[in-house]
Amino acid sequence: MHDELSKGERTRAVILDQAAGLATEVGLEGLSIGQLANATGMSKSGLYAHFGSKRDLQLATIEAARHTFVEEVMRPALRSPRGIERLLAICGTYLSHIERRVFPGGCFFSAAAVGVGTTRGPVHDAIVAQQLEWLALLQRLSREAMQCGDLDPDTDSAQLAFELQALLVAANTAFILRGDTGAFARALQAIRTRLHAPEVPANGTPNRPAQAQAGATRPTARAVRRRA
Question: How many other CB atoms sit within 10 Å of the CB of residue 85?
Fold first, then answer.
């Protein structure tokens, strides 16, 4: 019984992995048992044994995509030191998962948000919950950076999270829509500039952003304490 259950769970995971990738190309509303049967080579009846309805399939796909996002984006970044390094790391892992095409159509949740934005119901609510969780994480990491003295203590963490998300989504759109691979470097540069974070070029020697070199950036709380 245990072996049968494990095999069933493995089969379900493979199906949902295919479903998540397919959903970034055809949308959650476009995802169907028939399309998934073609993509996986399984029969429709076999798929119906795992998912009783299209809505069940959509909700299970969202949860599977969330798990992938946690493993590919969140966990690696959260191993970085607290403060601005961790905030930069999570922006980097987000961009990396797009560039590596973890999902073939780019960020699963950006793609899904467009498709379900005007359709209320459980699927819409699941996408909203994930987006709010992601923004809350960006806010928490921003507050940690303030506590570490890496960001000005007066920083509006909600506003900063919104701006970081906007830059990340812009890079995702540029890459998926136009194949613009340079969008990742531009997004990271914009994020570093917004955070007043030093660049780390190939030689490993940090350089301050252009504004900092010109003396236009506001000193961080950590810098103020050192001067005091």
Answer: 16
Q: Which residues contact 66 (CB under 8 A, 6 or more apart)?
A: 130
- In whole angstroms, give the CA distance from residue 121 to residue 61: 16
The CATH classification of domain 62-227, taken from the options 3.40.50.150, 3.40.190.10, 1.10.357.10, 2.60.40.10: 1.10.357.10
Distance of CA 148 to CAs 64, 69, 82, 152, Å?
A: 34, 27, 8, 10
Are the CB atoms for 168 and 194 separated by under 8 Å? no
In angstroms, rounded to a whole number, what is the distance separating the alpha carbons of residues 20 and 111? 11
Q: What is the pLDDT of residues 112-157, one digit of tens each?
A: 998 786 778 999 999 999 999 999 999 999 999 999 999 999 999 9
In this structure, the chain runs to a length of 228
The amino acid sitting at 140 is R
Asked whether 15 and 50 are in contact (CB, 8 A), the reply is yes
Instruction: Please report, for residues 19, 121, 161, 172, the alpha-carbon distance to residue 166 in angstroms, rounded to integers and kept in the order given.
Output: 26, 25, 9, 10
Closest CA to 51 of 66, 67, 31, 65: 31
